[in-house]
Design a protein that fits this description.
The protein is an alpha+beta fold. The chain contains 6 helices and 10 strands, in the order βαββαβββαβββααβα. The protein has 2 domains: about 100 residues, Pseudouridine synthase I, catalytic domain, N-terminal subdomain (Alpha-Beta Plaits), CATH 3.30.70.580; about 150 residues, Pseudouridine synthase I, catalytic domain, C-terminal subdomain (Alpha-Beta Plaits), CATH 3.30.70.660.
Length: about 280
């Protein structure tokens, strides 16, 4: 079916979507040859709504098993669909673990990934005496013996523009490893959950999970293995073996992607109050 048969057609139009998904069992955002991706699922639903093949671009490539509350996607279509029709139509064809929450028409120059000036990620640690199977699908169970005061002392060392090569996995196609972290903090969104919140200009492959895993090592009292400079020395080293393990994917969630000018975004995020 051509776009002309779907409520009429006109020149190309660009849409921005807010997408939420439960990453369990999925191969991540980006289309893969050997697994079902969010991109593939979303493009299939949008193609049915628009009456033609759709290519959706995401703000970030979340890993297999990682969740999203605020992934942003953009796509171009000639179909005459309103934002409300796109949301309702896409959700009609999407499985229960993926949903389009919002849609808006944006200028043709907008691109979900290239236009982004920052992202918010959250990593949830489950801090209960016993593993809770009702919650550990969305959090990493770490018990109750971590030193969260020591972990909190490390967070200011992440902020600012730095080379984060120590937290980058091999196989990345990113150009350079310098990124700016606008804000890093801990919060308690619900009983038994401690959340690591990190906002930055961009993130390297597995960077957020490597930071979460290294902080777990710090909380266990293993900061000494990183030398006399501790966590700050890890950041400065630029060497992945100096950092800790890569935390499991189920604790990580892409919370939001931002499109404000970097100066405005930096001021906004650093002005946030955070529950300690």
């Amino acid at each position: 079916m051509s776009p002309d048969n779907v409520g009429g057609a006109q020149g190309p139009r660009n849409f921005k979507l807010k997408v939420s998904y439960r990453g369990t069992g999925l191969s991540g955002w980006q289309r893969q040859e050997n697994g079902l991706s969010v991109q593939e699922i979303l493009e299939g639903a949008l193609s049915k709504v628009c009456g033609h093949g759709v290519v959706a671009h995401g703000s970030g490539r979340t890993d297999a098993g990682v969740h999203a509350e605020g992934q942003v996607a953009s796509f171009v279509t000639r179909a005459l669909r309103t934002p409300v029709q796109l949301v309702r139509g896409a959700n009609r064809f999407l499985p229960r673990n993926v949903a389009v929450l919002e849609a808006e028409e944006v200028p043709l120059g907008f691109h979900a990934r290239h236009s982004s000036t920052g992202k918010d990620y959250a990593y949830d640690y489950l801090v209960t005496e016993a593993r809770d199977p009702m919650r550990d699908w969305r959090a990493w169970w770490v018990g109750t013996n971590l030193d969260w005061g020591r972990i909190g002392e490390c967070l200011p060392m992440l902020e600012g523009e730095k080379d984060f090569a120590a937290f980058q996995s091999t196989g990345s196609d990113a150009t350079g490893s310098v990124r700016e972290i606008y804000r890093a903090a801990l919060s308690r969104p619900s009983p038994g959950i401690i959340r690591l919140e990190v906002s930055g200009s961009g993130f390297l492959r597995h960077m957020m999970r490597a930071i979460a895993g290294t902080l777990w090592e710090v909380g266990r009292g293993r900061v000494g293995v990183y030398g006399e400079d501790g966590f700050e020395g890890v950041v400065a080293s630029g060497k992945r073996p100096q950092a800790g393990l890569t935390a499991p994917p189920q604790g990580l969630c892409l919370m939001a992607a931002h499109y404000l000018p970097k100066g405005e975004l930096r001021a906004l995020l650093r002005g946030k109050s955070v529950e300690k």
